[in-house]
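In the laboratory, one determines a bound structure by crystallizing the protein with its ligand and collecting diffraction data. In a computational setting the workflow is compressed into a single prediction: the sequence and the ligand go in, and a structural description comes out. We illustrate the idea with fe (ii) ion.
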Amino acid sequence: MTAAAVGLSHSPLIGRNDPDADVLARVDRAVAGAREFVRAFDPDLVVLYAPDHYNGFFYKEMPPFCLATEAHAVGDFGSQAGPLSVDTGAAKALAQGVLDRGVDLTVSARMTVDHGFAQPLEVLFGGIDRVPVVPVFVNGVATPLCPVTRIRALGTAVGEAAAALDRRVLFLASGGLSHDPPVPVLEGAPPRVADALIEGRPPTPEQRARGEQRVVEAGREYAAGSTAMVPINPAWDNRLLDHLERGELTEFDSWTVEWMAKEGGGSAHEVRAWIAAFASLAATGPYDMTSRFYEAIPAWIAGFAVATAQGR
Ligand SMILES: O=C(O)/C=C/c1cccc(O)c1O
Ligand SMILES: [Fe+2]
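The predicted complex, in structure-token form:
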């Protein structure tokens, strides 16, 4: 089997609240490199690990992770809306393979996804419907969260199951590293917000626009020096990237939910998508990280990273 991995941070503030031109140019170069890596690797299947931000998954039933055999994007923050080009046959085979390996996977026959899934597909492939994909939701926001060991087990099982498919598989992770955007929290939420987080009633266009504007303003205030959010933590982010680069994935087993939130903020758990993708690649054999980019970008509320890795 031929396998590769790409990790790519997302932010809905890209293009709406941009950093200085020199930062933007460095990000653009790193993303162009990842795009070229993907073009040269030429995957015929992408397993996409990404979180959700209360657009598809709600507290009525909140799985720690879930694989989709069909998926539709809501088009939040200007991301592309509509069906993803899910490879249903591959998705079903991977789901069975993961369950057979003892990981209690949830399966969705119609997953709703947001910018977490849409953005990397748009950035790397030019759209959400361009490449056969198996979407795998990894809860990175809604506590309680499972231990990171289970995410590594999920990634390993997916990687082993993918190896049996005899395809050119790209494991793609979507997530910021340390970051603490104003994503709502159930505990202590006023009844109207709690109800929305539990039931998941679709917002009206006006409600969605107001919510998105709040995030844009939070990004502007953060970039201007507001201390309302947990600071981006470049040392922690680079420690994560070091472990991924060296293949030291068992190091993550001791990373607790509480410690991760303290070091990296409430959405630092999005690194679970990265851990899953690299565990999948590692399950197919040894790998080399072929490129690595990192920058703290407060305007995007993101410890922002781009990395590529190739199986040997
Ligand atoms: O409000 C949301 O839906 C998400 C906001 C956000 C902001 C910055 C970085 C991210 O990864 C986000 O998901
Ligand atoms: Fe996010």
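The chain has nine helices and eleven strands. Keep in mind that any predicted model is a hypothesis to be tested, not a measurement.
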